[in-house]
Amino acid sequence: MRYIYKLLISGLALLVPLAGCDTEKLHNLNINPQALNEVNMNFLFSAAQLGAASGGSEGDNRYIDWRTNIGYCSYWVQHLANSGGGGLSSGDKYFENVESDNAPWEFIYGGQLKNLNEVLKQTGEGGFEEGRRKNTREAARILRAFLFQRLTDYYGNIPYSSALQGIEGEFFPEYDNQQAIYTAVLSELEQAGAAISASNPDDGFAAADMIFQGDVDKWKRWANSIMLRMAMRMSNVDAATAGTMVTKALSGAGVFNSNDDIPWVPMSETPSQWTNQNGISRAFIPGDGGQSRIMSKTLIDVLKGDDPNSVADDDPRLMIFSDGVNGDTDPLAQEGMPNGLDAGTLDEYTGITGTNPNELFSRLNVAFIDVDDPYMLMSYAEVEFLQAEAIERGIGTVSGSAKEHYDAGVRAAMQMYEPFDASFAVSDAAVDAYLAAYPYTNGGANALEMIGTQMWLSKFLNWWEAWSDYRRTGYPNLTPIDYPGNITNGQIPRRLRYPSHEIATNSDNIASGGTSPDTHLGKVWWDVN
Protein backbone atom coordinates (compact mmCIF):
# COMPACT_ATOMS: atom_id res chain seq x y z
CA MET A 1 0.00 0.00 0.00
CA ARG A 2 2.84 2.37 0.82
CA TYR A 3 4.38 1.53 -2.50
CA ILE A 4 1.23 2.49 -4.38
CA TYR A 5 0.99 5.69 -2.34
CA LYS A 6 4.56 6.61 -3.26
CA LEU A 7 3.82 6.04 -6.90
CA LEU A 8 0.81 8.33 -6.75
CA ILE A 9 2.80 11.04 -5.02
CA SER A 10 5.61 10.68 -7.52
CA GLY A 11 3.12 10.90 -10.36
CA LEU A 12 1.62 14.08 -8.97
CA ALA A 13 5.09 15.53 -8.58
CA LEU A 14 5.73 14.89 -12.23
CA LEU A 15 2.43 16.53 -13.23
CA VAL A 16 2.90 19.70 -11.21
CA PRO A 17 5.39 21.34 -13.60
CA LEU A 18 2.92 20.86 -16.43
CA ALA A 19 0.53 23.33 -14.86
CA GLY A 20 2.82 26.13 -15.88
CA CYS A 21 3.15 24.97 -19.49
CA ASP A 22 1.63 26.68 -22.54
CA THR A 23 -1.76 24.95 -22.76
CA GLU A 24 -2.25 26.18 -26.33
CA LYS A 25 0.87 24.30 -27.42
CA LEU A 26 -0.41 21.18 -25.68
CA HIS A 27 -3.75 21.55 -27.45
CA ASN A 28 -2.00 21.86 -30.80
CA LEU A 29 -0.27 18.54 -30.20
CA ASN A 30 -3.69 16.89 -30.57
CA ILE A 31 -4.34 18.39 -34.01
CA ASN A 32 -3.49 16.41 -37.12
CA PRO A 33 -1.71 18.98 -39.32
CA GLN A 34 -2.59 16.97 -42.45
CA ALA A 35 -6.32 16.67 -41.72
CA LEU A 36 -8.84 18.92 -43.47
CA ASN A 37 -11.12 20.88 -41.17
CA GLU A 38 -12.98 22.35 -44.12
CA VAL A 39 -13.31 21.20 -47.74
CA ASN A 40 -13.67 23.68 -50.57
CA MET A 41 -16.98 22.75 -52.19
CA ASN A 42 -15.58 23.54 -55.63
CA PHE A 43 -13.20 20.61 -55.28
CA LEU A 44 -16.09 18.24 -54.62
CA PHE A 45 -18.02 19.76 -57.52
CA SER A 46 -15.09 19.14 -59.88
CA ALA A 47 -14.74 15.59 -58.58
CA ALA A 48 -18.42 14.94 -59.29
CA GLN A 49 -18.04 16.22 -62.85
CA LEU A 50 -15.09 13.93 -63.40
CA GLY A 51 -17.02 11.07 -61.82
CA ALA A 52 -19.98 11.64 -64.15
CA ALA A 53 -17.61 10.72 -66.97
CA SER A 54 -17.59 6.97 -66.26
CA GLY A 55 -17.23 6.96 -62.50
CA GLY A 56 -13.68 8.31 -62.27
CA SER A 57 -14.14 9.79 -58.81
CA GLU A 58 -14.37 6.30 -57.36
CA GLY A 59 -10.91 5.29 -58.45
CA ASP A 60 -11.55 3.22 -61.58
CA ASN A 61 -12.81 5.26 -64.50
CA ARG A 62 -13.40 2.28 -66.77
CA TYR A 63 -15.42 0.07 -64.42
CA ILE A 64 -18.94 1.41 -64.90
CA ASP A 65 -18.55 1.90 -68.66
CA TRP A 66 -16.88 -1.45 -69.21
CA ARG A 67 -19.45 -3.37 -67.19
CA THR A 68 -22.70 -1.63 -68.08
CA ASN A 69 -22.40 0.84 -70.95
CA ILE A 70 -20.30 -1.55 -73.05
CA GLY A 71 -20.77 -5.00 -71.50
CA TYR A 72 -24.55 -4.78 -71.46
CA CYS A 73 -25.96 -1.87 -73.44
CA SER A 74 -23.70 -1.73 -76.52
CA TYR A 75 -24.80 -5.30 -77.28
CA TRP A 76 -28.44 -4.87 -76.28
CA VAL A 77 -28.79 -2.03 -78.83
CA GLN A 78 -26.70 -3.97 -81.39
CA HIS A 79 -23.92 -1.47 -81.99
CA LEU A 80 -21.25 -4.00 -81.00
CA ALA A 81 -21.18 -7.81 -81.21
CA ASN A 82 -19.15 -10.52 -79.51
CA SER A 83 -18.71 -14.26 -80.00
CA GLY A 84 -17.84 -14.75 -76.34
CA GLY A 85 -20.15 -16.43 -73.88
CA GLY A 86 -20.40 -14.16 -70.86
CA GLY A 87 -18.40 -12.19 -68.32
CA LEU A 88 -17.92 -8.59 -69.40
CA SER A 89 -19.55 -9.28 -72.76
CA SER A 90 -22.70 -10.83 -71.30
CA GLY A 91 -25.00 -8.44 -73.12
CA ASP A 92 -24.50 -10.05 -76.51
CA LYS A 93 -26.27 -13.24 -75.43
CA TYR A 94 -28.55 -11.70 -72.75
CA PHE A 95 -26.66 -13.39 -69.94
CA GLU A 96 -26.54 -11.88 -66.47
CA ASN A 97 -23.44 -10.25 -65.03
CA VAL A 98 -23.75 -9.11 -61.42
CA GLU A 99 -21.07 -6.44 -61.78
CA SER A 100 -22.87 -4.95 -64.79
CA ASP A 101 -26.09 -4.65 -62.80
CA ASN A 102 -24.33 -3.26 -59.73
CA ALA A 103 -21.97 -0.74 -61.31
CA PRO A 104 -24.20 2.32 -61.97
CA TRP A 105 -25.74 2.07 -58.50
CA GLU A 106 -22.36 1.75 -56.78
CA PHE A 107 -20.60 4.51 -58.66
CA ILE A 108 -23.38 7.07 -59.05
CA TYR A 109 -24.66 6.82 -55.48
CA GLY A 110 -21.29 6.04 -53.91
CA GLY A 111 -19.21 8.69 -55.67
CA GLN A 112 -20.88 11.28 -57.85
CA LEU A 113 -24.09 11.87 -55.90
CA LYS A 114 -22.26 11.62 -52.59
CA ASN A 115 -19.99 14.52 -53.57
CA LEU A 116 -22.85 16.59 -54.96
CA ASN A 117 -24.94 15.95 -51.86
CA GLU A 118 -22.17 17.36 -49.71
CA VAL A 119 -21.93 20.45 -51.92
CA LEU A 120 -25.66 21.06 -51.51
CA LYS A 121 -25.55 20.42 -47.78
CA GLN A 122 -22.68 22.80 -47.10
CA THR A 123 -23.92 25.57 -49.40
CA GLY A 124 -27.44 25.31 -47.97
CA GLU A 125 -28.98 26.48 -44.72
CA GLY A 126 -26.66 25.85 -41.79
CA GLY A 127 -23.71 24.79 -43.95
CA PHE A 128 -20.29 26.37 -43.54
CA GLU A 129 -20.60 27.76 -47.11
CA GLU A 130 -24.17 29.05 -46.64
CA GLY A 131 -24.79 32.06 -48.88
CA ARG A 132 -21.65 31.48 -50.91
CA ARG A 133 -20.82 29.58 -54.11
CA LYS A 134 -24.32 30.09 -55.45
CA ASN A 135 -23.53 29.05 -59.01
CA THR A 136 -21.61 26.02 -57.81
CA ARG A 137 -24.71 25.06 -55.85
CA GLU A 138 -27.11 25.46 -58.78
CA ALA A 139 -24.82 23.66 -61.22
CA ALA A 140 -24.52 20.84 -58.67
CA ARG A 141 -28.32 20.61 -58.59
CA ILE A 142 -28.43 20.32 -62.39
CA LEU A 143 -25.73 17.63 -62.49
CA ARG A 144 -27.46 15.82 -59.62
CA ALA A 145 -30.72 15.84 -61.57
CA PHE A 146 -28.94 14.42 -64.62
CA LEU A 147 -27.47 11.59 -62.55
CA PHE A 148 -30.74 10.73 -60.81
CA GLN A 149 -32.44 10.66 -64.22
CA ARG A 150 -29.89 8.09 -65.35
CA LEU A 151 -30.27 5.97 -62.22
CA THR A 152 -34.04 5.86 -62.20
CA ASP A 153 -34.15 5.09 -65.92
CA TYR A 154 -31.85 2.11 -65.37
CA TYR A 155 -33.60 0.63 -62.31
CA GLY A 156 -37.06 2.22 -62.03
CA ASN A 157 -38.02 2.90 -58.41
CA ILE A 158 -34.97 3.89 -56.35
CA PRO A 159 -34.15 5.75 -53.11
CA TYR A 160 -34.45 9.48 -53.78
CA SER A 161 -36.06 11.53 -51.00
CA SER A 162 -34.29 9.58 -48.23
CA ALA A 163 -31.11 8.71 -50.16
CA LEU A 164 -27.60 9.82 -49.18
CA GLN A 165 -28.49 10.49 -45.54
CA GLY A 166 -26.21 8.01 -43.85
CA ILE A 167 -24.64 10.71 -41.65
CA GLU A 168 -28.14 11.54 -40.44
CA GLY A 169 -28.65 7.88 -39.52
CA GLU A 170 -30.72 6.84 -42.53
CA PHE A 171 -28.97 3.59 -43.38
CA PHE A 172 -31.89 1.84 -45.08
CA PRO A 173 -33.52 4.42 -47.37
CA GLU A 174 -37.05 3.94 -48.60
CA TYR A 175 -37.77 3.69 -52.31
CA ASP A 176 -39.62 6.41 -54.26
CA ASN A 177 -41.65 5.45 -57.29
CA GLN A 178 -40.25 6.66 -60.58
CA GLN A 179 -43.12 8.98 -61.37
CA ALA A 180 -42.54 10.87 -58.09
CA ILE A 181 -38.81 11.01 -58.82
CA TYR A 182 -39.46 12.46 -62.27
CA THR A 183 -41.74 15.12 -60.76
CA ALA A 184 -39.10 16.09 -58.18
CA VAL A 185 -36.18 16.07 -60.62
CA LEU A 186 -38.04 18.15 -63.20
CA SER A 187 -38.83 20.71 -60.49
CA GLU A 188 -35.18 20.73 -59.45
CA LEU A 189 -34.08 21.39 -63.02
CA GLU A 190 -36.56 24.22 -63.42
CA GLN A 191 -35.50 25.90 -60.18
CA ALA A 192 -31.76 25.47 -60.63
CA GLY A 193 -31.84 26.56 -64.27
CA ALA A 194 -33.60 29.77 -63.23
CA ALA A 195 -31.33 30.44 -60.22
CA ILE A 196 -27.92 30.00 -61.82
CA SER A 197 -26.88 33.46 -62.95
CA ALA A 198 -23.97 35.51 -64.20
CA SER A 199 -24.91 38.10 -61.57
CA ASN A 200 -23.98 35.72 -58.76
CA PRO A 201 -20.44 36.02 -57.36
CA ASP A 202 -18.04 33.66 -59.11
CA ASP A 203 -16.58 32.23 -55.86
CA GLY A 204 -14.19 30.07 -57.91
CA PHE A 205 -17.01 28.46 -59.91
CA ALA A 206 -15.54 29.07 -63.36
CA ALA A 207 -12.19 27.56 -62.37
CA ALA A 208 -13.90 24.50 -60.87
CA ASP A 209 -16.28 23.96 -63.80
CA MET A 210 -14.48 21.66 -66.22
CA ILE A 211 -17.61 21.16 -68.37
CA PHE A 212 -18.66 24.71 -69.30
CA GLN A 213 -15.92 26.80 -67.66
CA GLY A 214 -18.44 28.88 -65.75
CA ASP A 215 -20.74 29.67 -68.70
CA VAL A 216 -24.07 29.90 -66.89
CA ASP A 217 -26.07 30.22 -70.11
CA LYS A 218 -24.83 26.80 -71.18
CA TRP A 219 -25.78 25.40 -67.78
CA LYS A 220 -29.27 26.82 -68.22
CA ARG A 221 -29.57 25.22 -71.65
CA TRP A 222 -28.31 21.90 -70.28
CA ALA A 223 -30.92 21.99 -67.50
CA ASN A 224 -33.62 22.57 -70.11
CA SER A 225 -32.22 19.88 -72.42
CA ILE A 226 -32.38 17.30 -69.61
CA MET A 227 -35.93 18.50 -68.95
CA LEU A 228 -36.80 17.95 -72.62
CA ARG A 229 -35.34 14.42 -72.52
CA MET A 230 -37.32 13.54 -69.39
CA ALA A 231 -40.52 15.05 -70.78
CA MET A 232 -40.32 12.87 -73.87
CA ARG A 233 -39.39 9.81 -71.78
CA MET A 234 -42.70 10.16 -69.92
CA SER A 235 -44.73 11.13 -72.97
CA ASN A 236 -46.25 7.66 -73.44
CA VAL A 237 -47.62 7.53 -69.88
CA ASP A 238 -48.42 11.19 -69.13
CA ALA A 239 -48.72 13.15 -72.37
CA ALA A 240 -50.27 16.20 -70.70
CA THR A 241 -47.44 16.74 -68.21
CA ALA A 242 -44.91 15.90 -70.91
CA GLY A 243 -46.37 18.60 -73.14
CA THR A 244 -46.16 21.17 -70.35
CA MET A 245 -42.54 20.31 -69.64
CA VAL A 246 -41.57 20.33 -73.33
CA THR A 247 -42.98 23.85 -73.63
CA LYS A 248 -41.15 24.96 -70.46
CA ALA A 249 -37.87 23.44 -71.62
CA LEU A 250 -38.00 25.37 -74.88
CA SER A 251 -38.88 28.71 -73.28
CA GLY A 252 -36.49 31.21 -71.73
CA ALA A 253 -32.86 30.19 -72.21
CA GLY A 254 -34.03 27.19 -74.26
CA VAL A 255 -32.13 24.02 -74.99
CA PHE A 256 -28.80 23.28 -76.70
CA ASN A 257 -28.62 25.18 -79.98
CA SER A 258 -25.36 23.89 -81.47
CA ASN A 259 -22.60 21.35 -80.93
CA ASP A 260 -20.79 24.06 -78.98
CA ASP A 261 -23.27 23.42 -76.15
CA ILE A 262 -22.32 19.74 -75.73
CA PRO A 263 -21.26 18.98 -72.14
CA TRP A 264 -17.82 17.42 -72.55
CA VAL A 265 -15.71 16.31 -69.60
CA PRO A 266 -12.02 16.72 -70.52
CA MET A 267 -9.73 13.77 -69.92
CA SER A 268 -5.98 13.53 -69.52
CA GLU A 269 -3.34 10.85 -69.90
CA THR A 270 -1.76 11.97 -66.62
CA PRO A 271 -1.38 12.11 -63.67
CA SER A 272 -3.55 9.06 -62.93
CA GLN A 273 -4.88 6.46 -65.36
CA TRP A 274 -7.52 5.46 -62.84
CA THR A 275 -9.22 8.84 -62.52
CA ASN A 276 -8.15 11.12 -65.36
CA GLN A 277 -8.28 8.91 -68.44
CA ASN A 278 -11.33 8.19 -70.59
CA GLY A 279 -12.94 5.02 -69.21
CA ILE A 280 -14.56 3.97 -72.47
CA SER A 281 -11.23 4.19 -74.24
CA ARG A 282 -9.44 2.26 -71.52
CA ALA A 283 -11.95 -0.58 -71.69
CA PHE A 284 -10.95 -1.28 -75.29
CA ILE A 285 -7.17 -0.96 -74.98
CA PRO A 286 -5.44 -4.34 -75.49
CA GLY A 287 -3.72 -5.46 -72.31
CA ASP A 288 -5.64 -2.96 -70.19
CA GLY A 289 -9.32 -3.52 -70.77
CA GLY A 290 -9.20 -5.53 -73.95
CA GLN A 291 -12.94 -5.45 -74.63
CA SER A 292 -13.83 -6.71 -78.12
CA ARG A 293 -14.18 -3.97 -80.74
CA ILE A 294 -16.26 -5.98 -83.24
CA MET A 295 -19.08 -3.99 -84.83
CA SER A 296 -22.60 -5.39 -85.06
CA LYS A 297 -24.04 -6.33 -88.43
CA THR A 298 -27.18 -4.39 -87.48
CA LEU A 299 -25.24 -1.14 -87.18
CA ILE A 300 -22.97 -1.62 -90.18
CA ASP A 301 -25.92 -2.51 -92.42
CA VAL A 302 -27.73 0.71 -91.46
CA LEU A 303 -24.59 2.77 -92.06
CA LYS A 304 -24.05 1.18 -95.50
CA GLY A 305 -27.48 2.33 -96.62
CA ASP A 306 -30.06 0.88 -98.94
CA ASP A 307 -27.52 -0.19 -101.54
CA PRO A 308 -24.65 -2.10 -99.89
CA ASN A 309 -22.81 -2.26 -103.23
CA SER A 310 -22.56 1.50 -103.60
CA VAL A 311 -20.95 4.18 -101.47
CA ALA A 312 -23.20 6.90 -102.86
CA ASP A 313 -25.81 6.52 -100.12
CA ASP A 314 -23.49 5.54 -97.26
CA ASP A 315 -23.76 7.30 -93.93
CA PRO A 316 -20.63 9.51 -93.50
CA ARG A 317 -20.17 7.96 -90.05
CA LEU A 318 -19.42 4.51 -91.48
CA MET A 319 -15.67 5.08 -91.59
CA ILE A 320 -15.75 7.17 -88.43
CA PHE A 321 -17.20 4.37 -86.31
CA SER A 322 -15.21 1.64 -88.10
CA ASP A 323 -11.48 1.59 -88.80
CA GLY A 324 -11.80 -1.21 -91.33
CA VAL A 325 -11.86 -4.96 -91.77
CA ASN A 326 -8.40 -6.30 -90.96
CA GLY A 327 -6.91 -3.03 -92.20
CA ASP A 328 -9.18 -2.68 -95.26
CA THR A 329 -10.80 0.75 -95.04
CA ASP A 330 -12.78 0.50 -98.26
CA PRO A 331 -16.40 1.34 -97.26
CA LEU A 332 -17.66 -1.43 -99.56
CA ALA A 333 -15.59 -3.99 -97.62
CA GLN A 334 -17.17 -3.19 -94.25
CA GLU A 335 -19.13 -5.99 -92.65
CA GLY A 336 -20.56 -6.39 -89.18
CA MET A 337 -20.90 -9.59 -87.18
CA PRO A 338 -24.41 -10.78 -86.27
CA ASN A 339 -25.16 -10.65 -82.56
CA GLY A 340 -25.70 -13.91 -80.69
CA LEU A 341 -23.04 -16.05 -82.40
CA ASP A 342 -20.58 -18.26 -80.54
CA ALA A 343 -17.47 -19.96 -81.90
CA GLY A 344 -19.48 -22.81 -83.43
CA THR A 345 -22.28 -20.79 -85.00
CA LEU A 346 -19.78 -18.20 -86.17
CA ASP A 347 -17.96 -20.90 -88.14
CA GLU A 348 -21.28 -21.96 -89.64
CA TYR A 349 -22.01 -18.35 -90.60
CA THR A 350 -18.64 -17.75 -92.27
CA GLY A 351 -18.00 -21.27 -93.58
CA ILE A 352 -14.52 -21.10 -92.05
CA THR A 353 -13.22 -23.41 -89.34
CA GLY A 354 -11.72 -21.49 -86.45
CA THR A 355 -13.03 -18.10 -87.57
CA ASN A 356 -11.15 -15.11 -86.17
CA PRO A 357 -13.78 -12.32 -86.03
CA ASN A 358 -11.05 -9.68 -85.80
CA GLU A 359 -9.99 -10.58 -89.32
CA LEU A 360 -13.41 -10.73 -90.97
CA PHE A 361 -15.48 -7.95 -89.46
CA SER A 362 -15.36 -4.18 -88.98
CA ARG A 363 -13.93 -3.01 -85.70
CA LEU A 364 -14.46 0.10 -83.58
CA ASN A 365 -12.19 2.85 -84.83
CA VAL A 366 -8.99 2.88 -82.82
CA ALA A 367 -9.12 6.69 -82.81
CA PHE A 368 -11.91 6.39 -80.22
CA ILE A 369 -9.62 4.71 -77.71
CA ASP A 370 -7.16 7.50 -76.99
CA VAL A 371 -7.18 7.74 -73.21
CA ASP A 372 -7.16 11.55 -73.27
CA ASP A 373 -10.28 11.75 -75.44
CA PRO A 374 -13.03 13.88 -73.86
CA TYR A 375 -16.20 12.23 -72.54
CA MET A 376 -19.59 13.35 -73.91
CA LEU A 377 -22.44 13.43 -71.39
CA MET A 378 -25.25 14.48 -73.74
CA SER A 379 -25.50 15.67 -77.34
CA TYR A 380 -27.11 18.60 -79.11
CA ALA A 381 -28.35 16.19 -81.79
CA GLU A 382 -30.59 14.50 -79.22
CA VAL A 383 -32.52 17.68 -78.43
CA GLU A 384 -33.17 18.27 -82.13
CA PHE A 385 -34.52 14.74 -82.62
CA LEU A 386 -36.68 15.09 -79.52
CA GLN A 387 -38.18 18.30 -80.88
CA ALA A 388 -38.88 16.64 -84.23
CA GLU A 389 -40.65 13.81 -82.43
CA ALA A 390 -42.61 16.20 -80.21
CA ILE A 391 -43.92 18.01 -83.29
CA GLU A 392 -44.89 14.78 -85.02
CA ARG A 393 -46.76 13.58 -81.94
CA GLY A 394 -48.23 16.93 -80.88
CA ILE A 395 -46.40 17.01 -77.53
CA GLY A 396 -46.03 20.58 -76.25
CA THR A 397 -45.32 23.75 -78.21
CA VAL A 398 -42.30 23.53 -80.49
CA SER A 399 -41.36 26.12 -83.11
CA GLY A 400 -40.34 25.17 -86.64
CA SER A 401 -41.12 22.00 -88.53
CA ALA A 402 -40.26 18.40 -87.72
CA LYS A 403 -38.14 18.26 -90.89
CA GLU A 404 -36.11 21.30 -89.81
CA HIS A 405 -35.33 19.71 -86.45
CA TYR A 406 -34.69 16.28 -87.97
CA ASP A 407 -32.25 17.69 -90.53
CA ALA A 408 -30.50 19.74 -87.84
CA GLY A 409 -30.24 16.63 -85.66
CA VAL A 410 -28.69 14.55 -88.44
CA ARG A 411 -26.20 17.31 -89.23
CA ALA A 412 -25.25 17.75 -85.58
CA ALA A 413 -24.89 13.99 -85.04
CA MET A 414 -22.60 13.60 -88.04
CA GLN A 415 -20.44 16.59 -87.16
CA MET A 416 -19.93 16.11 -83.42
CA TYR A 417 -16.97 13.71 -83.37
CA GLU A 418 -14.07 16.05 -84.18
CA PRO A 419 -13.12 16.41 -80.47
CA PHE A 420 -12.11 12.73 -80.66
CA ASP A 421 -10.03 13.11 -83.81
CA ALA A 422 -9.64 15.80 -86.45
CA SER A 423 -10.06 13.17 -89.18
CA PHE A 424 -13.68 12.72 -88.05
CA ALA A 425 -14.75 16.01 -89.64
CA VAL A 426 -17.82 15.69 -91.88
CA SER A 427 -18.50 18.44 -94.43
CA ASP A 428 -21.84 20.14 -94.90
CA ALA A 429 -21.84 18.81 -98.46
CA ALA A 430 -21.58 15.23 -97.20
CA VAL A 431 -24.49 15.79 -94.82
CA ASP A 432 -26.55 17.44 -97.56
CA ALA A 433 -25.96 14.46 -99.86
CA TYR A 434 -27.12 12.04 -97.18
CA LEU A 435 -30.25 14.07 -96.41
CA ALA A 436 -31.03 14.20 -100.14
CA ALA A 437 -30.63 10.41 -100.40
CA TYR A 438 -32.92 9.84 -97.40
CA PRO A 439 -35.31 12.82 -97.31
CA TYR A 440 -37.56 13.35 -94.34
CA THR A 441 -41.21 14.21 -94.93
CA ASN A 442 -43.25 16.00 -92.29
CA GLY A 443 -45.99 13.66 -91.15
CA GLY A 444 -44.63 10.82 -93.25
CA ALA A 445 -45.63 7.24 -92.57
CA ASN A 446 -42.12 6.37 -91.37
CA ALA A 447 -41.31 9.73 -89.73
CA LEU A 448 -41.09 8.42 -86.16
CA GLU A 449 -39.03 5.43 -87.26
CA MET A 450 -36.57 7.73 -89.04
CA ILE A 451 -36.26 9.91 -85.94
CA GLY A 452 -35.82 6.90 -83.65
CA THR A 453 -33.22 5.31 -85.91
CA GLN A 454 -31.21 8.51 -86.16
CA MET A 455 -31.41 8.93 -82.39
CA TRP A 456 -30.02 5.40 -82.04
CA LEU A 457 -27.15 6.23 -84.40
CA SER A 458 -26.40 9.46 -82.53
CA LYS A 459 -25.94 7.57 -79.25
CA PHE A 460 -22.82 5.72 -80.41
CA LEU A 461 -20.59 5.38 -77.30
CA ASN A 462 -23.52 6.54 -75.13
CA TRP A 463 -25.09 3.09 -75.35
CA TRP A 464 -27.07 3.17 -72.10
CA GLU A 465 -29.04 6.16 -73.40
CA ALA A 466 -29.55 4.44 -76.77
CA TRP A 467 -31.00 1.52 -74.77
CA SER A 468 -33.40 3.86 -72.94
CA ASP A 469 -34.50 5.41 -76.23
CA TYR A 470 -35.10 1.98 -77.71
CA ARG A 471 -37.15 0.87 -74.72
CA ARG A 472 -39.38 3.93 -75.07
CA THR A 473 -39.77 4.19 -78.85
CA GLY A 474 -39.18 0.66 -80.13
CA TYR A 475 -36.84 2.06 -82.80
CA PRO A 476 -34.93 0.92 -84.64
CA ASN A 477 -36.59 -2.42 -85.33
CA LEU A 478 -34.04 -4.70 -83.67
CA THR A 479 -34.27 -8.49 -83.94
CA PRO A 480 -33.73 -9.93 -80.43
CA ILE A 481 -31.28 -12.77 -79.76
CA ASP A 482 -32.50 -16.09 -78.37
CA TYR A 483 -29.25 -17.75 -77.38
CA PRO A 484 -29.58 -20.96 -75.31
CA GLY A 485 -29.70 -20.25 -71.58
CA ASN A 486 -30.35 -16.51 -71.87
CA ILE A 487 -32.14 -14.81 -68.97
CA THR A 488 -34.93 -13.05 -70.89
CA ASN A 489 -36.42 -15.78 -73.06
CA GLY A 490 -34.99 -14.09 -76.11
CA GLN A 491 -36.22 -10.57 -75.36
CA ILE A 492 -34.05 -7.44 -75.21
CA PRO A 493 -33.65 -6.58 -71.49
CA ARG A 494 -35.85 -3.78 -70.14
CA ARG A 495 -34.05 -2.74 -66.93
CA LEU A 496 -31.09 -3.42 -64.66
CA ARG A 497 -31.58 -5.60 -61.61
CA TYR A 498 -31.06 -4.12 -58.16
CA PRO A 499 -27.51 -4.69 -56.90
CA SER A 500 -26.86 -7.83 -54.93
CA HIS A 501 -25.61 -5.90 -51.90
CA GLU A 502 -28.74 -3.72 -51.90
CA ILE A 503 -30.91 -6.82 -51.96
CA ALA A 504 -28.93 -8.24 -49.04
CA THR A 505 -29.11 -5.13 -46.84
CA ASN A 506 -32.28 -3.24 -47.82
CA SER A 507 -34.62 -6.02 -48.88
CA ASP A 508 -37.61 -4.79 -46.85
CA ASN A 509 -37.67 -1.44 -48.66
CA ILE A 510 -37.19 -3.13 -52.02
CA ALA A 511 -40.14 -5.38 -51.23
CA SER A 512 -42.36 -2.45 -50.24
CA GLY A 513 -41.33 0.10 -52.86
CA GLY A 514 -38.98 -1.33 -55.46
CA THR A 515 -39.76 -2.05 -59.09
CA SER A 516 -41.41 -5.44 -59.43
CA PRO A 517 -40.51 -7.90 -60.72
CA ASP A 518 -36.84 -7.33 -60.04
CA THR A 519 -35.77 -9.00 -63.26
CA HIS A 520 -34.32 -7.83 -66.54
CA LEU A 521 -37.82 -7.98 -67.99
CA GLY A 522 -39.40 -5.86 -65.27
CA LYS A 523 -40.33 -2.48 -66.72
CA VAL A 524 -39.70 1.05 -65.49
CA TRP A 525 -42.68 3.41 -65.18
CA TRP A 526 -42.45 5.06 -68.61
CA ASP A 527 -41.71 1.82 -70.52
CA VAL A 528 -45.05 0.83 -72.00
CA ASN A 529 -43.83 0.08 -75.52
Textual characterization of the structure:
The protein is an all-alpha fold and 529 residues long. It contains 22 helices and 2 strands. It has a two-stranded antiparallel ribbon. Helix 5 packs antiparallel against helix 6 (134-155), helix 6 (134-155) runs antiparallel to helix 7 and helix 6 (134-155) packs parallel to helix 9 (216-233). The N and C termini lie far apart (87 Å). Mean pLDDT is 91; it is low at 1-21.
How far is the first residue's CA from the last residue's CA? 87 Å
Beta-strand fraction estimate: under 5%
What's the helix-strand series?
HHHHHHHHHHEHHHHHEHHHHHHH
Q: What is the general shape?
A: globular
Number of H/I helices: 22
Helices and strands, with pairings:
Blueprint: H1 2-15, H2 23-29, H3 41-52, H4 63-76, H5 98-123, H6 134-155, H7 178-195, H8 205-208, H9 216-233, H10 239-249, E1 264-265, H11 279-284, H12 297-303, H13 318-321, H14 343-350, H15 357-360, E2 375-376, H16 380-393, H17 402-414, H18 428-437, H19 447-458, H20 463-473, H21 500-505, H22 507-513
Antiparallel strand pairs: 1-2
